[in-house]
Predict the structure of Aminotransferase class I/classII large domain-containing protein.
Amino acid sequence: MKIAGFGVEEWLNVWEKSATYDIAQSTVSSMTMHEILNLDGKGGQSFYQMLDEQKMNYGWIEGSPEFKKEVAKLYDDIDPENILQTNGATGANHLALYSLIEPGDHVISEYPSYQQLYDIPKSLGAEVDFWHIKEDADWYPDIEELKQLIRPNTKMICLNNANNPTGTLLSRDFLEQVVEIAKSVNAYVLVDEVYLPLDHPENFASIVDLYDKGIATNSLSKTYSTPGIRVGWTASNSDLADLFRKYRDYTMICAGVFNDLLAVCVLQHKEQVLARNRKIVLNNLEILKEWVAQEPKVSVVLPQAVSTSFIKLDISGDTEDFCVRLLKEKGVLLVPGNRFDMPKHARLGYCTDEATLKEGLKRLSVFLHQEN
Ligand SMILES: Cc1ncc(COP(=O)(O)O)c(C=O)c1O
């Protein structure tokens, strides 16, 4: 089986540890263990006491009942039984695609988005058509184009809502139109939902609440600020959950006792985590807006309080070369847009701590003007 290199991950693997001002990441500033264990106001004492007595066996294979119960609450009407814990959203996407996609299938993937959503189906032998997002349409894809792309043998439509790298949220109305098109050929709709808008979360609609053949993948890595826990999940109907169980036994067994305990702690205190993150996102979005307004060499379609943005750079040379020199000379890390097949753009993860963001943007401005 052949697969393309993962553009963004390969970039971050090489460069992220050398950044002084890392404004490339898409997580809302990660929480420390201290922050996680203080969510219950008890300072972690009871957690460590409980951990002391905990056997490090395989634990709950599909995720603990508490975990499943908490995750099910994120949806309108999902039985906790149909939640399967995975190794991050990466594991969830892989599980769903590996379980369903066969050679010769036709898959339509929003493009660009998270690379798993088109390169795993390709690696499994599917024919993949790209459904392009458009900057002049606020980074929405065109529903008329989906009507042209759909075929009788389309097995799956893959979306990333909200989108990485742009931070654009697809509306409920738009998703309902996608569902109607998918229904016409009985196709699945897989939506990677790791990015939730933090100002008006009610504007977000999960695909599993809209469509019986909808599959939602998600994790605690972005909106919930704990990528280090490595916990994600699939949410689906019960037939799909049974199918995923079969493939899951071959690929992961479980996510780990310690990880599950921490995941439950984060989910049981999700209102506090979301309040913390709403503050960070809205505050930093204001800083980003003000910076763009006074920076003539940058423009942006603003993200919808989602922790990633995609800026357009007024530069003449190669985008990747620009980003490497920006890092080496100014210590500032972006993800170059060519890693999303969109040169002259860059992913700017603005939800780091305020001081890093401010200094990173200042240095980026200096570099843009000295260079061009
Ligand atoms: C859209 C999307 N899905 C999944 C992931 C990976 O998530 P996890 O850390 O939960 O595996 C990322 C990380 O950048 C992402 O942007």
